[in-house]
Design a protein that fits this description.
It is built from nine helices and 14 strands. With 364 residues, the protein is α/β, with parallel strands linked by helices. It folds into two domains: 242 residues, Aspartate Aminotransferase, domain 2 (3-Layer(aba) Sandwich); 102 residues, Aspartate Aminotransferase, domain 1 (Alpha-Beta Complex), CATH 3.90.1150.10. The strands form four sheets. It has a seven-stranded mixed β-sheet with strand order 2-10-9-8-5-3-4. It has a three-stranded antiparallel β-sheet with strand order 11-12-14. The two termini are 37 Å apart.
Length: 364
């Protein structure tokens, strides 16, 4: 029996135990091949089957049409901050609109401005990024080649309940921290990208889902490794993709389909988990102060403050004694952050909820 703790880290994050157990079986020899899943060639039949199964599982969960390509890339979401504008924004007369709801959106537009005209059509910075914009606050440029937004800001704990209506302009979404946590209407998106290390698998894999009609925008003079078109034409094996990470994603998507039952029940579970913590915050008499506006609270990253930084340090230290780790807020904002991605069991959230109540009663 392994002594597993509750890992509330924002990423690399908790994975389903069943996935880890299955991977353990294949670590020495994948299905009788005599080689580890980490040793097989990315061009062998076994790898082809892993890629095809993972692709099919993602298409099933996200209800993707045949007009989308799924790419297996590296570099994390941070590399996509540059790849998106390099591929879609470079070109005479092109511009893009960016919606800034937190730290990652700010980083994305910073890189985009290096490649072309990128306009922040809304920013929550003046309000300390506590909410997402209202529809009437968004003034899109009808000539924009895309609208970029971050569906869930991990640092501030702010999440869009639904994607913004851009009036037909292709939506580009950084979905790193809430992809596969709930159903989406994929047909509304031109491109979705996500680092795997929060809800899908280990660090090292970035999933890019791109609508095929956007591929012609990718210039011929881009470095091959930074071209969506090149990766699409080569089925993501222009270079060696992160095979092991894709294999883990295959197991995670299988878990979502066969054990959870799809994204609808996953969303219901996630809503229950997050509500436990928000109820604990709201009922603490002000001892805990949630960061985000109640209308924009994240189901993935619950963020809050205590009356003092000393109490926050004590909270994190005490939580570790009860097998809870990763609760320290991001270094840029401080406070407490509980990341409760898909694989975080409800028992773990209940344990944190009970600890919060006990800590508040003793220190409040």
């Amino acid at each position: 029996m392994h002594n597993r703790i509750y890992n509330f880290s924002a990423g690399p994050a908790v994975l389903p135990e069943g996935v880890l157990e299955e991977a353990q079986k294949d670590l020495l020899s994948l299905k009788g091949l005599g080689m580890s899943v980490m040793e097989i060639s990315h061009r062998c039949k076994a790898a082809d089957e892993i890629f095809a199964t993972t692709d099919a599982n993602l298409r099933r969960l996200l209800r993707l049409g045949d007009n989308y390509k799924i790419l297996w890339l590296g570099g994390g979401a941070s590399q996509q901050f540059s790849m998106v504008p390099m591929n879609l924004l470079r070109g005479e007369g092109r511009s893009a609109d960016y919606i800034l709801t937190g730290s990652w959106g700010e980083k994305a537009i910073k890189e985009a401005k290096k490649e072309g005209t990128a306009r922040a059509i809304w920013t929550g910075k003046a309000e300390n990024f506590v909410r997402v914009p209202k529809p009437e606050e968004l003034n899109f440029d009808p000539k924009a080649v895309y609208v970029h937004y971050t569906s869930n800001e991990t640092i501030q704990g702010v999440q869009f309940e639904a994607e913004p209506d851009a009036g037909g302009i292709p939506l580009v979404c950084d979905a790193s921290s809430d992809i596969l946590s709930r159903p989406i209407d994929a047909s509304k998106y031109g491109l979705i990208y996500a680092g795997a290390q929060k809800n899908m698998g280990p660090a090292g894999l970035t999933v890019v889902i791109i609508r095929e009609d956007l591929l012609p925008l990718c210039g011929e003079n881009l470095p091959s490794m930074l071209s969506y078109r090149v990766h699409a034409e080569n089925n993501s094996v222009y270079n060696t993709p992160p095979v092991f990470a894709i294999y883990i994603l295959m197991l995670v998507t299988r878990w979502l389909i066969e054990i959870i039952g799809g994204l609808e029940p996953m969303a219901a579970i996630n809503k229950r988990k997050s509500q436990l913590l928000y109820d604990a915050i709201d009922s603490s008499g002000g001892f805990y102060r949630g960061h985000s506006d109640p209308s924009c609270r994240s189901a993935m990253n619950v963020t809050w403050r205590l009356p003092s930084e000393d109490l926050e340090k004590e909270f994190v230290a005490e939580a570790k004694k009860y097998s809870m780790d990763g609760l320290k807020g991001h270094r840029s904002v401080g406070g407490i952050r509980a990341s409760i991605y898909n694989a975080m069991p409800e028992k773990g959230v209940e344990t944190l909820r009970d600890f919060m109540k006990d800590f508040a009663s003793k220190k409040g």
